[in-house]
Design goal:
The protein is built from eight helices and 16 strands. By secondary structure, it is α/β, with parallel strands linked by helices. Helix 1 packs across helix 8 and helix 4 crosses helix 5. The site of ribose-5-phosphate has 13 residues, from strand 13 and helix 6.
């Protein structure tokens, strides 16, 4: 097995190749001899892949990484591998999972249809909606990233786990069970893309070190408001731990209310504290209908 990475996922790809005992194949990005005087992506895979099972890894965020992925699939295929497993650690465009208004693009489906061309299976993580897997024609699987969050929190001296909304309850339950800690949840209403509000609720957090657990931080609105609520109710320390850290717009300003913010390496950022490589390695080792 050999691992090839897009520029969005290099650190995770190195971790994955170590976890799998697979060879990491270097790739050149944006280094066309002579160069094109524009912003177009360029890739060149610097190794032999003939007859190999290749794990190609690239998050589809931000947009240029999508184009880069399409180029990589072409480059990898040209090198005649036996099989290509595409790992998309963070599936960008996953939140437009339906046509909310007439005439809208079904972005998640459009992306799935294009990135699957030339690969034999797809593995991704922390999907906004697992139904997105049905948009792929090749075998597609969602890998759970929460065990990685749980592993990180086990070493963080946490007393209490909080889910900031209904969607996060299953995540908080998993993490609380693994850590042997109590948990609770807030009930969230989204006002618009940037603002949310919570139903009033008394939480048993006075004097405690609390971890807010969620799949993704985007604008930071959800976690920041939950952290504010926790502090108002007497929490001593608030740590936010998520799989995907997007941190768009003024997210970091909002998140100043948290004592710590930790995210996995699906999207590298200043909050990256732990890797989901063990989760993807385990999934790649297991049987899949796409295997050749
Ligand atoms: C919502 O269902 C998700 O689990 C996250 O809570 C949400 O996407 C986070 O977005 P933001 O950081 O913009 O509040």
């Amino acid at each position: 097995m050999k691992v090839v990475s897009g520029s969005a996922s290099v650190a995770l790809a190195h971790e994955l190749s170590t976890a799998m005992g697979a060879k990491f194949i270097e790739t050149a990005y944006e280094k066309h001899p002579g160069g094109f005087p524009d912003d177009e992506r360029y890739v060149r895979v610097l190794g032999d892949l003939a007859g190999d099972h290749v794990v190609l890894i690239q998050s589809t965020h931000p947009d240029p990484k999508v184009v880069e992925l399409l180029l990589l699939i072409d480059a990898v295929r040209e090198l005649r591998p036996r099989m290509v497993s595409l790992v998309i650690p963070y599936f960008g465009y996953g939140r437009q999972d339906k046509r909310f208004e007439p005439g809208e693009a079904l972005s998640a489906k459009a992306l799935a249809k294009h990135v699957q061309v030339g690969v034999d299976e797809v593995l991704t993580m922390g999907l906004h909606n697992p139904d997105i897997l049905t948009f792929f024609d090749v075998p597609a699987r969602e890998v759970n990233g929460m065990p990685a969050v749980g592993r990180y929190l086990r070493g963080r001296d946490i007393d209490f786990i909080l889910a900031p909304d209904d969607n996060a309850i299953r995540h908080a339950k998993d993490v609380a069970k693994a850590a042997g800690k109590p948990w609770d949840a807030l009930s969230k209403t989204r006002i618009d893309s940037y603002n949310v509000k919570f139903e009033p609720k008394k939480l048993d957090v006075r004097g405690k070190r609390v971890a807010i657990v969620d799949d993704v931080i985007s604008t930071g609105g959800t976690v920041a408001l939950a952290a504010k609520e926790l502090k108002q109710q007497g929490a001593r320390h608030v740590l936010a731990a998520v799989v995907h850290g997007l941190f768009v717009a003024s997210a970091w300003d909002k998140l100043a209310v948290c004592d710590e913010v930790a995210a996995s390496d699906t999207i590298p950022s200043r909050a990256t504290r732990f890797s989901v490589a063990p989760e993807f390695a385990a999934a790649l080792r297991s049987e899949s209908p796409g295997r050749k």
